[in-house]
Write a structure and sequence with these properties.
Elements: H1 2-12, E1 35-36, E2 43-49, H2 54-70, E3 75-81, H3 91-104, H4 108-118, H5 128-138, H6 143-151, H7 156-168, E4 176-179, E5 182-183, H8 189-203
Parallel strand pairs: 2-3
Antiparallel strand pairs: 1-3, 2-4, 4-5
Helix pairs in contact: 1-2, 3-4, 3-5, 5-6
């Protein structure tokens, strides 16, 4: 499984990094956003991500596996769209499709997230829709409903809202991660752990 291999690449990539931004925390909209982990977790991690972004693909195992394993029951992870359309031709369409999946089944979003990064290199602007619909058919998603949602760009406004919020919060690339509203200067493990530990310390 590609994402599992990337997990070890991420571990190998740990290096000295600055800890976190010193700016005050920002309030991010977490309503109707894909998330996993306890709703009352003491630490909330928000990723502004791009489904076509290779760096986001490398970050995914850290957010999906490593950190929840290191802090069981203590972390909630939230995903917000930030497609970099100027360099990633299918990123926005991918976000629209992902949010269409989320509309049907909140938990299925994370299956789609994992599938997308596992298959990122094989996806193109021309085959994205057919690949998504094939995935949907195998994962209990109503294919006809999903196709309508994609074709009408029914979730485009939600993507735009996340992008606007990200820009206002200082996001200028992906992945950008916020821990309890504070923007991390790095998405690498040491910086995130330092911020998570600080967040947990404040709860003691």
């Amino acid at each position: 499984m590609k994402i599992a291999a990337l997990f070890f690449v991420c571990l190998a990539a740990i290096a000295q990094t600055p800890a976190s931004e010193t700016s005050a925390p920002v309030k991010l909209n977490l309503e109707n956003q894909p998330s996993f982990g306890p709703a009352d977790a003491p630490v909330t991690i928000v990723e502004f991500g791009d489904l076509e972004c290779p760096s986001c693909r490398a970050e995914a195992p850290i957010l999906r596996q490593l950190l929840p394993g290191l802090y069981p029951g203590k972390i909630r992870v939230v995903f917000k769209d930030y497609p970099l359309e100027s360099i990633h031709p299918w990123a926005r369409a991918g976000s629209i499709a992902a949010r269409c999946v989320f509309r049907q089944n909140h938990e299925a979003f994370w299956k789609f997230y994992d599938w997308d990064y596992d298959n990122q290199d094989d996806i193109t602007p021309d085959n994205l829709k057919s690949k998504v619909l094939d995935w949907a058919e195998k994962n209990g998603i109503n294919k006809a409903e999903l196709e309508r949602c994609i074709d009408t760009k029914a979730t485009d406004a939600e993507v735009s809202s996340n992008v606007a919020e990200g820009k206002a919060a200082g996001v200028n690339g992906t992945p950008t991660v916020f821990v309890n509203g504070r923007k991390s200067a790095s998405s690498r493990i040491p910086a995130l752990q330092e911020m998570i530990d600080a967040g947990l310390g404040k709860k003691k």
